[in-house]
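ugh ok fine here u go
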Amino acid sequence: MRIRPALALCIVLAATATGRAHAQAQVDQLSLEDAVRLAREANPALHAARLRADVVAERVPQAGALPDPILGFSLMNRQIQDFGSTAEPMLQNRFELSQRLPWPGKLGFSEERSELLASAGLLEAEETEELLIARVKAVYYRLAFMDRALLIMENTRELLRDFLDVSSTLYAVGEGLQQDVLQAQVAVASMTEDITVMEQDRLATAARLNALLGREATAAIGRLELPSPGAELPSVEALMELADAQRPGLQAARGRARAAAAGYRAAGRAAYPDFMVGVAYSQRPQYNDWLSFMVGISLPLWAGKSHLPLRREMAALQAEQEARVLDLYNETFARIAEQRAEAERARKLLSLYATSILPQARAAVESALSAYRVGKVDFMTLVQNELTVNRFEIESVRWSAEYQRAVAELEALVGSDFGGAQ
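structure:
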C-alpha cells in the first residue's frame, strides 16, 4: 500500500532537482561588468570626487603665478586755488607701474605643494572609484546570493507542498497520521515566511545597488551573476607588496605628506622680504617730462605673529600627514590579512560543502526515502532531511557570495584586479 506514495515522493524529488537545474540555467540580465561600467559613468559621489580633483588641479598655476602688477595714475602738485593751472613746475600727471617679486623659492615651493596636492587629489578620486567598485560588487553579490537562495527556497516550498499533498492523501486513506499533515503545513508556512522576508530584503538591496549605479531606486534588476571562486589567493605579503605599490589611497597619502613638506619649506621662506620694482612716467604740460624708477623690499617686522606660527603650523601638518601614511599602511595591511582570511575560509568551506556536506546530506535523503518505502522511518524524517539539504545549499551559495565580496574588497585595498573569480 506504500508503493504509490513512495513513487510519488521519488517523482517529486526528481522534479525538484530538474527545476533547480533549469532555473540555474536561466540567463542573468545584468552582468557585473555592466554594473561596474554604470557606476563609473553615473555614480554622483564618484563624479563629485573627480570634480574635486579638477578643482585642486586648477590651483597649481595660481600658486606659481606672480602677484598682479599695479598700474596707477595720479595728479600731483595741483594748486588748490587754481586747480586747472599748469604753470607750477612741479605739476605732474603721473603714471606708475609696479610689480612685487617674492623672495626666490616662495613661488616654487608653493607651486610644488599645489602640484603634489593636485596629484593626491587625482589619486583620491581613483581611490574613491576603487572603493565604489568594491561596494557595487558587494551589493551585487549579495543580490546574486538572494536570487539563488530564493530559488532554493521556492523549490523547497514546492517540494513541501507536494509532501503535504502526499501526507494528506495518506491520511485520507487511513495510512498516515494527522500529525504529519500538520507538520507539513507548518513547514510550508514557515518557508513562505522566509521567502517573504528574503523578497523584501532583495527589494531594499536592489534599491541600494541602483543608488550606486546612479539609477532610479525602483529600476528593475533581474537575476545576477555569482561566479565560482578561483584558485588560491596570493599570500598576504604578496598582496601587501601590490598595495604598497598600487593602492591609490596610499599613494595619495604619501603625496599629501610630500606636499606638507613643500609647504613647510615655503613657510620657511615666508619671513624673507619681497622685492618691489616699479617705473613711473611724469607728464608735465609746460616742462620736460620725467621718468622714474623704484626699488623696495618688504620689512617682516611682524614675523613673530604671522610667519613663524605659519612655519610651526606647516611642521605640525607635515608630522600629521606622515602619521596618516603610517596609519593607512598599517590599516591596509590589517584589512588585507582579514579579507584574505575571510576569502580563504569561504573558499575552503565551499569545497567542504561540495565534496562532503552536500553529498552526505543528499545521501541521507536517499537513505530516508528508501527507509520510508519499507516503513522504517516516519514521513517527517524524510521532510527534515530534504530541508537540511536545502539549508546546506543556501549556506553554500552564501559562502560563494561572501568569497566574492572579500575578493572585491581585497582588490580595492590592493588597487588592482587579480582575478579572484573564474
